[in-house]
Amino acid sequence: MQGAWVLLLLLGLGLRLSLGVIPVEEEDPAFWNRQAAQALDAAKKLQPIQTAAKNLIIFLGDGMGVSTVTATRILKGQMSGKPGPETPLVMDQFPYLALSKTYNVDKHVPDSAGTATAYLCGVKGNMKTIGVSAAARYNQCNTTRGNEVTSVMNRAKKAGKSVGIVTTTRVQHASPAGTYAHTVNRNWYSDADLSADAKTQGCQDIATQLINNMDIDVRQGGQGAGLGRGGGTHTHHSPRQPTALEPARVSVILGGGRKYMWGWKSVGIVTTTRVQHASPAGTYAHTVNRNWYSDADLSADAKTQGCQDIATQLINNMDIDVILGGGRKYMFPEGTPDPEYPQDDSRNGVRKDKRNLVQEWQAKHQGAQYVWNRTALMQASNDSSVTHLMGLFEPADMKYEVQRDFTKDPSLAEMTEAALRLLSRNPRGFYLFVEGGRIDHGHHENVAYRALTEAIEFDNAIDKTSQLTSENDTLTLVTADHSHVFTYGGYPLRGSSVVGLADGKASDGKSYTSVLYGNGPGYQLSGGARPDVDKSESRDPTYRQQAAVPLSSETHGGEDVAVFARGPQAHLVHGVQEQSFVAHVMAFAACIEPYTDCSLPTPASPTAAVQTPASPTAAAHPGPAVCPPSLALLGGALLLLPALH
């Protein structure tokens, strides 16, 4: 229903703006001179905040390259009835900006696992490995031990802060797993994913690491820890010695990935992927295979060598206060019916070790609460007796924003607010990882509308955080792990739909869209030729944009990505930097290891992190647009209704 509604809005927008109407005031040079003078005046008044940061927040737009940021800005503006490019995103308004070089140690074009290790732990690693240095080898469990590196979130926890992860993927996915896991295979989500060798060698799946590696205060998502100056310098042959950079525990976990699972400063992770996914896993996991989501994913060798799946690391590697996202199936024993889809065997728990990781996690904390739907999340976030929160809202990744059930599934902004409510209770501050993880998935499918609407909701979550925190004591960074082979061109008229047709025809006499992909499943031929595309087809929210090279899944791009910064020490974000620099800025700003001697003054007037927020129980917004559509926009849509029958 929502997809059809948004389609009407876009069609109405096309009727209203397709003629390329330019605002009259923009024809006057004085308009641009005034605008530039105002921007220059603001720049001259900009003063770095030289105090330490009480709170640390990193927003990770998975796959959100610069071309995605641009197209998102235009679409968000058009959804509010404007031509598009002149309307700033919330992240655009951050005062400091840098470019980040995203390559992995072994690959020019990276994946989300190796990059998570860089921006979350401060050390670059190899592709498909999480929370380990480049001395560890993909899928070789026995190279894990001695090569673990520690995330900033882990260090924040040890410094007395609460921590959390929030994601729209599974919470065991590559990005959130970077906060807590150490694995040589990013796909070891549960023990069912471990190879025989990995089990023999004692490797742990990512879900197990989630509940064991550190104490996370908040966990939301589909599952997720650490950093070090000179980290990862030990060889894998050397015995692992306890150091100041050893893993802690996680308090908040929100996201998808529930099937993989059946303090001090507060820490949290929020993601729309599974919380065991590569990006969130970078906050807590150490693995040489990003796909070891559960023990079912481990190879025989990995199990023999004692490697852990990512879901296990999520609950073991550190005490995470909040965990929110997806990834239920990796947490529960094989065959455990899913509470939301009890008749669908494909969504059952997958753990072969018969462990219920959610129960194990709850047993660690007297005030721990597990939820799996929006209503329960809202209730728990307002319950003062809840000290640790895990919300897993899908068996694997959470639904795309355009497909979300607003009564059952929380939005990324809602999960982020819930995490902030719990984490901000800690007077010593917090660390929060928030991931818009399905931007990446939309691009891999060559469905640009899905990617861009995910990015709009990601910006909405940043907006919510800006309302609830103060830049005087909270360092907020917004960045991406990598880009995509996604382009925006074709000389479209100003105000024309960003997902519509380019102005003019291609050399083959056929139309083409303004947004295209270099490769992916959008490649197609009809009778040996490229198929034509019309206006209505291009604006269908499920339309797969054309690609130049046939692949089952579109690839990442290798160009630099942006880093937006606001708050204490944000001025350090400048120029062109290695991606690992991001983690070091955060550690220095908070005066945590290895920068405990930073000598930064505390904020002069520290404020509570959450400032009288609007109730998260308020009705969900009807779609990804921030502002309601104008009457003209609705009128345009209604005029086109007959054509839709």
UniProtKB/TrEMBL annotation:
Give the record's cofactor note, including how many are bound: Binds 2 Zn(2+) ions.
Pfam families given in the database record: Alk_phosphatase
EC number in record: 3.1.3.1
Q: Please state the protein's primary subcellular location.
A: membrane
Q: What is the membrane topology listed in the Swiss-Prot or TrEMBL record?
A: Lipid-anchor; GPI-anchor
The active site is formed by S112
Catalyses which reaction(s): a phosphate monoester + H2O = an alcohol + phosphate
Q: Which GO terms describe its molecular function?
A: alkaline phosphatase activity; metal ion binding
Bias kind Gly residues: ranges: 221-233
What PROSITE patterns is this protein classified in? ALKALINE_PHOSPHATASE
Its subcellular locations are:
Cell membrane
Question: Which stretches does the entry tag as region Disordered?
Answer: 221-243
Q: Which cofactor does it need?
A: Zn(2+); Mg(2+)
Chain sites annotated for binding Mg(2+): D62, H173, S175, E435
Q: Which UniProt keywords apply?
A: Glycoprotein, GPI-anchor, Hydrolase, Lipoprotein, Magnesium, Membrane, Metal-binding, Signal, Zinc
Q: Where is the signal peptide?
A: 1-20
Which family is this sequence assigned to? Belongs to the alkaline phosphatase family.
Spell out the protein name for this chain.
Alkaline phosphatase
Task: Supply the source organism for this entry.
Answer: Camelus dromedarius
